[in-house]
Structure formats: C-alpha cells, structure tokens
Write a structure and sequence with these properties.
alpha+beta, single chain, five-stranded mixed β-sheet, elongated
C-alpha cells in the first residue's frame, strides 16, 4: 500500500481512462495510474469500466467501484476531464458546468434542426371558378 501512495518520479496519481478493445470497438478501463505512465500502460488499480458503444438495448454500460474512487480521491488523486465528466453524469460528483451548457446547446440545435425539416404547410390559392365556394384568401 505504501508503494501506491508515494510519488513516482515527480508525478502524481491520476484517475483516467485506459483504452482497450479492438479496432472500431473501443472499451475503457477507469484506472488510478501515475501521471508519467502511458495512457494504456501499467496502472495502480482498476476502478471501473466503460463501454461507450450502445448495446442491444441502446445502453452505454458503466461500472464503477465508488468505494475505491473515494479512497483514491482521499489520497489526493486528480481526475482527468473525461473521468470527471463521467463521474458527474453518474451522480458521484456535481455536474461540471460545461456539461450542462453543452447539453442545452445540443437540445436547442436538435430542436432547430427538427423545425427546419418540417416545412410550414401553405394552402394553395383558390381557383377563380370556385372562388364563391371557398373562404376568402388572405
């Protein structure tokens, strides 16, 4: 346990994603690692996993060991931005303000795109022969 909490050649402990999986099929491990190590290199402890591609039910699967996350954060480990965002969405940490802002922007963009796809329905002008039968045109 002493080996894990000591500094590593001037670095510090970071909680971040380590990429795994195959081509076009990413899979991430959420790990506590020294900041000087490679992204997919040796890590101190695996704290969870993330499958970013939706499964058959349309769900993105996340598994977290919250007890060990609390331990590492208590030891002074720093979070990477993607890890901080994920933990905010999971409810472990408060949501990052940019997460809320980006969600609102995306919602507005989708709403505008939806409105532009549905053109307004315009009524055809009345024909001169049947003008007496239809309501007045504006």
């Amino acid at each position: 346990a002493i080996r894990m909490t000591t500094a590593y050649r001037g670095g510090h402990v970071v909680i971040r994603f380590a990429l795994g999986g195959c081509t076009n099929r990413p899979f991430f491990r959420i790990v506590a690692a020294h900041s000087k190590r490679a992204r997919d290199g040796k890590y101190l402890e695996q704290l969870g996993c993330l499958d970013p591609l939706p499964n058959a039910h349309g769900e993105k699967v996340v598994g977290l060991n919250l007890e060990r996350l609390r331990h590492w954060l208590g030891c002074g480990a720093q979070l990477s931005r993607p890890a901080e965002k994920l933990l905010g969405l999971a409810g472990f940490l408060p949501l990052h303000p940019m997460t809320i802002t980006n969600a609102e922007r995306l919602r507005r963009r989708r709403q505008r795109a939806q409105e532009s796809l549905v053109p307004p329905v315009e009524e055809a002008p009345c024909s001169p022969r049947v003008r007496s039968e239809c309501p007045p045109c504006i």
